[in-house]
Amino acid sequence: MNHSESVDCTVKPPVFLQIGDAKGDSARSGVCVVDDLATDINIEKITFKNYYTAYVTIRLLRRKAEKEGSAKWCTALRDLALMDNPHTEGGSQNYFSIHRRQMQVEPDHVESLRLILRQPSSAWRLFNLEEIRLFPHKEPAPEKEVSDWLSNLIVVKQPPDLEGLPDPQTVSSSIQQMWALTEVMQANRTTASIGRFDVDGCYDINLLSLT
Amino acid sequence: MEDGTDLSPSIAQIVQRLRGSHLHSQLERQAKDCLHRPEIKLESLKEDVRAFLKASGWEKRLQNAVYRELHVQLPQCHPTTPAEHLKEPLAYMRKAQASWEKRVLKSLNSMSTELGVPLARMRPAGEQKDLTNKWNEMGTDEPDLSRFRPVYAPKDFLEVLISLRNPNHDSSEDMTVKSHWGLIQVPLNVRDIPQLRQAYSELNLNNGQLGIDDHAHVHPDLFENSYVQIGKKVVVEQDSAAAQQYSRRGCPTGLRSDLWALTLNSTNQPQDVMHYEQLKAGVIQHDLLVDYLIYKDVKLTASNDDYYFVFEDFLYQVMLCFSRDTAVLEHFKYNSATPPKSYIHGKVGNEEFAVLYPPNGVIPFHGFSMYVAPLCFLYNEPSKLYSVFRMMYIRYFFRLHSISSSPSGIVALCLQFERLLQAHLPQLFYHLRQIGAQPLRIAFKWMVRAFSGYLSTDQLLLLWDRILGYDSLEVVAVLAAAVFAFRAENLMEVASLASAEAVLADLSTLKVMPLIQIFLFATAI
Questions:
Q1: Where residue A162 falls among pLDDT bands split at 50, 70, 90?
Q2: Angle of CA points A57, A61, A62, to nearest 5°
Q3: Fewer CB within 10 Å, N or C, chain B?
Q4: Which residues cross the membrane (chain B) (predicted)?
């Protein structure tokens, strides 16, 4: 899915939660909240790149379609494990996507998205999610109806009298066969390489490139 | 995380890779030829052709090919994942690998300029003819190799691994209860003994093993005879998955070459032989600087080894052709390493004249030929030997000399070795650490070569059976820890790194399977 399809949203900077007095507490927080503001979208999927977050919970602020002004928070996904083991590297920098089907509620008319990140291990200095993108849900396009004017086409004229020329039916069928062959060849394109390592028989090289 | 377990992208990927391959055209030809057969009816054409292909063994061959593809397939991941992430997900490891590669390339460049030997040179016609005549006895040729030195040795690589650090990892320098005593300071997930016991359950004390229960004093009817019968059946069935499962308890000597070829799905059909001949032509046509590195490596390692010196000529034939094989380049999709690039003379910067050097992208290091040497005991036909070696390299051996977070990668193996030792032999580890003999400094050279050249050949092949059977190099780390456990008493008495090395200098009398079995299943935890 190309990035141009994702919705622009403003991601607020992450807020790390502390118990008690926030300042002066030397212990690092294991919970972080990231708010993502969107304007009334239906979410198809959320993609992001992990950076050492162990678990993520997604909460949505949804507005009911009929009533204006009453928006409610609900939990779409609770404690999705991004890392197999919070203390070790597995999954720590992977790319993830969460589809609407994986969510417990329908992510429609979402005004705001809240990601609660947890990293219980003290092994890491920072944890966050990067490149958070929201993709809107598209309704499947309705069947296009055939326009009326198409049915008012001109009737095909009688084929002209051919003398000495080959029968157009056989010509067109053989051309169709050839066309079908080229389609088959194109579809059967192999990924195997030829195996040549030189350029036109020449392999005199300079020094190795260091960039 | 994709929604559900969607297999269609995997299937599409495998189909794409198999399409246009020789197997594909053979299947099509077989399907076409079988139309003449009386049992194929037009009404049930599809089912009849399928049944025919199944009965004649072609479906099995396709299954084996798919099984092979699954082994080298990239893990399923998010579609927006960039290619570099597929090679190696952790950014700091990619960076470390890139700077290590730069060092190696600089070293190769300076060797080329200092010695005045070009990186690649077209051989004149006379020299080409000479080499063709001498192809089977390249060992007798004694070029002047004194000026050449290996590009790097395993201990240089070890220093790089020791200096690997995750910038986001908070590792305080104090010795706390969770600190790691070893040299590798990267928090990869490695398995401990309880997890290994589950994963390697076939190596349990209750199961018969080749390497233990085929000893002279054990009556063959107790285990060996029936096990060999099963092995013969597996070879007749020609099933890759069964061969892999069978290898977990060892391969009988007489069946090993077939079983390994089956597990790796390495065939020796005419097109493989032709491919090998094409590579040979590449060797004859161009002379590469890496060829001298290969000569030097073989002379320094395999030729000096009591078991492998007889295969010197084979080693040249395989290694020189390996350097010319562009088919190896496909493994760089899942290897954290990148093949070195260069440009044709006078066309620097012009991408049309960009080439990779060497053609297979792999620069050999000191000891590289030891990956090939043990295989010479199994295969005497060069094209078959070559085919099996190439498969072993692109599945396993490449992980032993590139920096990656893979559980079979050398970083994870080193960490696993150290963790196993620290958890189960803490007194020994502490003692060795105090006398300045960090265990990894001794064990690293064994693991980088997967013990080739350190164990006796029959024991080494039993170890490599398990590597193939479990599709993982973990057993190498387990064996390294088991060796230390075995020699623990002697090691507790040494007072220096040199004497620790002396205690562990000779492993040729060790029996690997009892060591591994005792370490995994008889260690108190």
A1: low
A2: 125
A3: C
A4: none
The nearest alpha carbon in chain A to B359 belongs to A197
Predicted local distance difference test score (pLDDT) of residue B172: 65
Q: A207 and B342 in contact by Cβ < 8 A?
A: yes
Nearest C-alpha of chain A: how many angstroms from B93?
Answer: 11
DSSP string, A124-193: BS--EEEEEEEEE--PPPPPPPPPGGGGGPPPPPPPPP-SSSPPHHHHHHHHHHHHHHHHHHHHT-----
Among B373, B390, B241, B271, which Cα is nearest to B329's? B390
- Tell me the mean pLDDT in the region A36-45: 80
Q: Where are the alpha helices (DSSP H) in A4-70?
A: none
What is the pTM assigned to this prediction?
0.87
DSSP 8-state secondary structure symbol assigned to residue B3: S
The mean of the pLDDT values for chain B is 89
Q: What is the pLDDT of residue B353?
A: 84
Lowest mean pLDDT among A109-113, A188-192, B305-309, B319-323: A188-192
Strand partners, B286: B122
Residue B420 near residue B478 (C-beta atoms within 8 A): yes
Q: Residue B286: which of A90, A126, A203 has the nearest Cβ?
A: A203
CATH number of B193-253+400-522: 1.10.472
The residue ranges of every structural domain in chain B are 9-72, 94-154+267-397, 193-253+400-522
Rounded Cα–Cα distance for residues B221 and A167 (Å): 80
Which residues in chain B have their CB less than 8 angstroms from residue A102's CB? Answer: 1, 3
C-alpha distances out from residue A146 to A141, A150, A152, A156, B97, Å: 15, 7, 12, 20, 59
The answer to whether B326 contacts A197, with C-beta atoms less than 8 Å apart, is yes
pLDDT score for A2 = 47
Whole-number Å distance between alpha carbons of B457 and B506: 14
Interface contact A207, partner B, CB < 8 A: yes
CATH superfamily of A10-136: Galactose-binding domain-like (2.60.120.260)
Q: Taking CA atoms, what residue in B is nearest to A83?
A: B189
A93 contacts in chain B (CB < 8 Å): 85, 89-91
The SS3 call for residue B179 is coil
How do residues B444-482 score in pLDDT, each as one tens digit? 999 999 999 999 999 999 999 999 999 999 999 999 999
Both tokens assigned to B333: 């999709």
Q: What percentage of chain A reaches a pLDDT higher than 70?
A: 74
**CA atoms lying within 13 Å on the CB side of residue B60:** 15
Query: Is B80 in contact with A1 (Cβ distance < 8 A)?
Result: yes
The 10 Å CB-count burial string (b at 16+, else e) for B198-217 is eebebbeeeebbbbbbbeee
Size of interface A-B (CB pairs under 8 A): 149
In chain A, residues with a C-beta closer than 8 Å to the C-beta of B166 are: 89
CA-derived radius of gyration, chain B:
25
Across the interface, whether the CB atoms of B355 and A206 are under 8 A apart is answered no
A182, B75, B394, B434 from B333: Cα distances, Å: 30, 11, 11, 42
Domain ranges of chain A: 10-136
Task: With both helix axes pointing from N to C terminus, report the angle between B410-424 and B426-434 in degrees, rounded to the nearest 10.
Answer: 110
Angle B149-B152-B158 from CA coordinates, rounded to 5° = 150
Of A28-37, A50-59, B248-257, B378-387, least confident by mean pLDDT is: A28-37
| A102 part of contact set with chain B, CB < 8 Å | yes
Instruction: Find how far residue B224's CA is from the centre of its chain.
Output: 28
What mean pLDDT is predicted for residues B388-403? 95
pLDDT of residue B44: 81
Q: Is A184 on the interface with B (CB under 8 A)?
A: no
Structure tokens at B241: 């998955």
**Which H helix or E strand runs over B155?**
helix B154-162
